[in-house]
Amino acid sequence: xxxxxxxxxxxxxxxxxxxxxxxxxxxxxxxxxxxxxxxxxxxxxxxxxxxxxxxxxxxxxxxxxxxxxxxxxxxxxxxxxxxxxxxxxxxxxxxxxxxxxxxxxxxxxxxxxxxxxxxxxxxxxxxxxxxxxxxxxxxxxxxxxxxxxxxxxxxxxxxxxxxxxxxxxxxxxxxxxxxxxxxxxxxxxxxxxxxxxxxxxxxxxxxxxxxxxxxxxxxxxxxxxxxxxxxxxxxxxxxxxxxxxxxxxxxxxxxxxxx
Length: 259
Known about the structure:
With 259 residues, this protein is an alpha+beta fold.
């Protein structure tokens, strides 16, 4: 996975602003930072602040597994602000068994190649579960192109019998939603899904591996991001190129029920 950067050790968790905690930058505005900085601990995002999780009530909320920039408070703040939402959003650090974090087989209009989960039964990861109310879920869905038929993602339900999610300090969940890329994921060359190493490293690899990709997006991660952000049709061309060059494989999560 794109292991996120973390704030400096010892930073306080007493309701400070995202800027003070080093969590503010959004990959939507700084694509080479994708997936953005993740918190070190569970907490509650409220506007531009992170508060301790405490005993915040989760009943009636929808659990959503974050595998990419949805684990970044700065990105979430950006997405929710577009819909005028500043309500509290709990983010719970969790031990997840059964999925790993790969590379979406599409070029995002935000200028990056994003993360997407794939089935990995023996893999154990530390990820965040977002607990969203109805308005928050609708806003994040819209940011992922869900449920538009031509969007890049589908939200599916992973039952606890297949993917075990253990929130810190709590019992394993009965299931969790996750966004699965409808284009599939990129493979490593051997057919197995490749893991997302962080945006700059990923784009460097993709450009080295393909002269046709360099023709479209230039020779550096910086030119890739700039050209992708400037031209939606170029993003679509890059997405098609992944398939034309036979870089795409299934995530193994396509058969799960949409939610």
